[in-house]
Design a protein that fits this description.
The protein contains one helix and four strands, in the order H-E-E-E-E. It is mainly beta. The model has no long low-confidence stretch (mean pLDDT about 85).
Length: about 70
């Protein structure tokens, strides 16, 4: 179930208050991804779960460590 564009326009990240974008590329479930801090909030049955504790941390590109 897609998220209404009007709703998406007024939603903000509860952590940093930046805007959110819809990411439907994940096979398991769509997510709302913060354009500021990068937290990814799940969308379950068409309902955004905007709880920081439920958010997935952004994936960071790691440089190989040299030692």
């Amino acid at each position: 179930m897609p998220i209404d564009s009007g709703l998406l326009a007024i939603l903000a990240c509860p952590s940093c208050r930046a805007s959110l974008r819809l990411d439907e590329t994940r096979a398991e479930q769509p997510e709302l991804v913060c354009t500021g801090c990068g937290l990814a909030y799940p969308v379950r049955d068409g309902i955004p779960v905007l709880l920081v504790d439920e958010a997935r941390q952004p994936e960071t590109s790691r440089q190989p460590e040299t030692g």
